[in-house]
Design brief:
2 copies of one chain form a homodimer. Helices cover 28% and strands 26% of the residues of chain A. Chain A is of the alpha+beta class.
Chain lengths: 313, 313
């Protein structure tokens, strides 16, 4: 990339210090002073051209936002507070400094967009930029803190718990997989107001992600098809033969990935923002109740395919 | 990749809990209990096929080891203790589960190889695997702790300080850029036994990395060419027309990258493992003393080129 050093200097000018960030990017490592007696949560996620986005369609700002939002959604899934992130860019040689700045701005702005009364912005404190002959790839690692709420794992679901989602699902490929808002504040509010026994964010699709919770918790579930909030996009997909015309709206809601709504279990949740779709059961099988009959709900896999994706060689 | 889930389950079987790692990979984020009152250092680095390694030449174990060792070397550069790492793999579709396991094993084994009386192994606590049509890329983010030694930055060099390197440099392209040992324990021992005013690991080459220290510290330096420990590989390169025959051994030692030795400044270092190559000066210029004359030592840039690297389109 021509102007690589201009880009790196610009990135550095974006850094800020605060009570946790003692030394932001610029040295070999950033230095943080972690709040005393607060748990530290850490994860990492990437976006790859042709898999998670399509660089011929999506703007660099939207691509950058997505990698940060995927990480923020992981924080939401455990009801923790995102604090700081570090990033790597693998940039194609053809990329301009302007394009790279827009990628960075997308990440930065997504980190700022979660700021509210209850949640601070998530700052970028370091990174590495490489230029290569491959396609665009961005990786983001995130550090979060428990901040008064015990991190919610996937293994606490108990028979009798309700199964909830926080929004309509299915058909995210039509655009929402790039534009979703991670449910960071909502997760904190739910965890503060009711008992959440297990939680995950819907990235692989309802059938697979519920399978993760049930496997980890050694339980099963009965899901009521009529209660699943099906997104209009799932219906729209059915009218699009190329993308999803061979599946019903319900199938899209069950198996499409990248909704990034929360899926959780709770014995006592009454929050109107959570939609109850079923109940955890002792028998280790996930059943879908449809038209009065229970049938096994098997994960149909994460089959999110970008239209630009080329067949395997 | 066929067998992707087998690989993910195998990765998970590699995880261990300890006093810091409360919950390793498997949930959305790993949960750590950071030692009270200890600084947290965080960084991230990547290796890209055709830039940092050549997948047609190097083994997956060596490629995995390199991404971890680059991060461990960043920890060495600040004299901090590596604690845990998280990883992303962007895998070509053709990659087998066996190959992916060898990448992972290389990372894991590099994290274990630093373990000694003074230093604990660095554990992998999370990650994300993606399969795409691009080349192999691996990113590793690392968390370290100060553990009793104030992190050493790049900005503390003062006029009169000696300039030191911890080993012979130049010509790493002949193989050492894949096989180096990060100087984690040595950095800790040096920092405990003398005053280190600034430190960096030699990744971009002596001329450029010394420039980073001088820029950050607002100083200059005089480097004595006769004192620079030139690696035999730098001499061997001069006999290889294709790779480096147009440069002298000294030029390779000055400008080649990826030695991963430590470059530091100190007013009082007497450790036999550190080789003094010059002195920090107040005047903001880096000079090379050669045959009795001082000439500006300008960074010739990081020109490490893998033989397989294709020209820019």
């Amino acid at each position: 990339m021509p102007g690589e050093f201009e880009f790196l200097n610009w990135v550095r000018s974006q850094q800020r210090r605060d009570v946790i960030v003692q030394l932001p990017a610029g040295d070999d490592l950033a230095i943080l002073r972690w709040p005393a007696d607060d748990l530290l949560l850490v994860g990492i996620d990437q976006v790859l051209d042709g898999v998670h986005f399509d660089s011929t369609i999506h703007t660099p700002h939207a691509i950058g936002a997505k990698v940060m939002n995927r990480n923020l959604s992981d924080c939401a899934a455990m009801a923790c507070l995102p604090v700081v992130a570090v990033i790597t860019f693998a940039l194609p040689r053809s990329v301009s400094p302007e394009y790279a700045k827009n990628l960075y701005a997308g990440i930065r702005d997504a980190g700022m967009a979660i700021a509210s009364e209850d949640v601070s912005a998530c700052a970028i404190v370091g990174g590495d930029t490489g230029v290569w002959n491959g396609p665009l790839a961005i990786t983001c690692a995130i550090l979060g803190r428990a901040a008064g709420i015990t991190p919610i794992q996937r293994n606490g679901a108990r028979p009798g718990d309700g199964v909830f989602v926080t929004g309509a699902i299915g058909g995210s490929i039509l655009g929402r997989h790039m534009t979703f808002s991670p449910r960071v504040a909502l997760a904190r509010q739910l965890a503060a107001s009711c008992t959440i026994s297990a939680m995950i964010d819907l990235s692989d699709g309802l059938s697979r992600d519920l399978g993760h919770i049930c496997d980890e918790s050694s339980v099963g579930a009965v899901i009521d098809a009529a209660q699943i909030p099906i997104h209009p996009d799932a219906r729209a997909l059915c009218n699009d033969r190329a993308l999803g015309g061979d599946r019903s709206p319900l199938e899209h809601a069950l198996h499409d990935g990248e909704d990034y709504e929360l899926l959780f279990t709770s014995p006592d949740c009454r929050d109107a923002r959570a939609i109850r779709i079923g109940t955890i059961a002792a028998q280790r099988e996930v059943l879908l109740r449809l038209d009065g009959a229970d049938k096994p709900m098997r994960p149909a896999g994460f089959e999110h395919q970008l239209s630009s994706e080329k067949p395997a060689p």
